[in-house]
Amino acid sequence: MKIDRIDFPLKDLFIRVFADKVFLVGGTIRDYLLYGRIGVSRDIDLVVTDHSYKEIEKKLRPYGKTNTVGRSFAVVKFSKDGDNFDISVPRKDTRRDKESHSHRNFIIESGPHISLEDDLARRDFTCNSIAMRLYDNQMVDPFDGVTAIEKRRITMTGPETFFDDPLRILRAARFASVHQFAVDESIYGHSREVRLDGLSAERVLDELFRLLLESEKPSLGLHEYFKLSALERLFPELTALALTIQDAHFHPETDEFGHHTVWAHTLITVDIARDLCRRYALSEEQTLALLLAALLHDVGKAVTTRWEFKRGRMTVTSMYHDSRGVDIAGHILARLKIEGRHRFPLKKTVLSLVKYHHRIYDLYRHRVNVGFKAVSRLVRDLENQDFLLLLLDFADRRSRCPDPLAFTGLDEASQWLLEQKEALDINQESIKPLVMGRDLVNLGISPGKDMGDYLQKLYELQLDGAFQTTAEGLEVFKKLHSGQD
């Protein structure tokens, strides 16, 4: 079988150097068959047969930069004019210890004596176990991966070795989400038996982040985590949400079986948040913060939900789930080793969003009495991420609508806050403290606890509207210091 010519930078160079021994492999072919294009950010993976690692590196050296950092995996990293390629020798992977599922527990055998078919056999899914010879576009498809792509199914390449690397369970969920493939039932049948405790936090986090960032509807992959029993073992706090009901009057949204669970609500909220990330062109760090907050915003409900008699009927309530949720979310983020990302305070931002996720709508409900004081404190507490809170608040409320993803813009409550900020000229710059430590030093106050207490009191008074300039603030301080106020 041949397919249309797949063009990519330096393809002709590789043919000139390696003739009919160089093959395009894996995800690049899958994406081309699915979408008719190669992802702009994808590194091209090539396999060169009948060559040793040293021979490949030697032949490429005159044409660009070669990096042998992947030597242990028989991969030469080659770059030229900003384009990057992984060029490997065919290899076979064998587990040392049959009881260990660590990704370090493999004996890697590579070289010209390994066939291309053996190399394809070690790969995870049949849709990835395909190759195309660059010389003539001839396909090599020993595991019928093209059919799997056509049927949009995730099927194991080698059932006897598939679970050697437990990360493949999470990869199956990501592929199902990103490409909207159906997971083969045989994978569900065995996934519960695979130990996941050998997976490092870094590998789990990388898969979770890719699922959130690459999926149009992350709920599909998160639900696969649930179905593959990965959720209960890696994120038991989230599995508990699938067993936590919500009051159907306030939360009419359900799962496919009609259950009014917090998990069903969470999945819808995440999908709305993902849509908002694209609409407002959020940065990758902001996107992750909003999506993680959407995933964790109601995690406290599992420990706070109970029945109460209110408004003349028995009602499901979850008092203080936001504050309890901060603690639980904090434990999850710590377990995943999430702190900052590219100088963005990811963990801190997520926890602030979880803590305050009801605050905007609470202000809106009492908007007749809300002014500069309440809005400025909201902006202050969110430390320049109040727009993310606005989006989370909208996604949380929008999830209760009959067609939650069918919206054209923000609703009245969200617009109200934006209008209040503009009318009151409230932003991070306008609410900076007017009185600083150096101002108090000039008045004879020594640095220390007393100065800190004064500065905090003055800032609270500033946000209350007690003064609008530094000079006015210092006059207020003098009254405080002299005991006149």
How is this structure best described in words?
The protein is an alpha+beta fold. It folds into three domains: 1-158, Beta Polymerase, domain 2, CATH 3.30.460; 277-431, no CATH class; 437-482, no CATH class. It contains 23 helices and 13 strands. The chain has helices at residues 11-18, 27-35, 53-60, 116-121, 145-151, 167-179, 185-191, 201-214, 218-227, 230-234, 236-239, 262-279, 284-296, 301-304, 321-335, 346-355, 359-365, 372-382, 386-398, 412-423, 437-441, 449-463, 470-482; strands spanning 22-25, 44-48, 65-67, 75-80, 83-88, 91-95, 106-110, 131-133, 139-140, 153-154, 182-183, 306-310, 313-317. Strand 8 and strand 9 (139-140) form a beta hairpin. Helix 12 (262-279) runs antiparallel to helix 13 and helix 13 (284-296) packs across helix 16. It is globular. The model has no long low-confidence stretch (mean pLDDT 91).
What's the gist of this structure?
By secondary structure, the chain is of the alpha+beta class. 47% of the residues lie in helices and 11% in strands.
Present the secondary structure layout.
Layout: H1 11-18, E1 22-25, H2 27-35, E2 44-48, H3 53-60, E3 65-67, E4 75-80, E5 83-88, E6 91-95, E7 106-110, H4 116-121, E8 131-133, E9 139-140, H5 145-151, E10 153-154, H6 167-179, E11 182-183, H7 185-191, H8 201-214, H9 218-227, H10 230-234, H11 236-239, H12 262-279, H13 284-296, H14 301-304, E12 306-310, E13 313-317, H15 321-335, H16 346-355, H17 359-365, H18 372-382, H19 386-398, H20 412-423, H21 437-441, H22 449-463, H23 470-482
Parallel strand pairs: 2-5, 10-11
Antiparallel strand pairs: 1-2, 1-8, 3-4, 4-5, 6-7, 8-9, 12-13
Helix pairs in contact: 6-8, 6-9, 9-12, 12-13, 12-19, 13-16, 13-19, 15-16
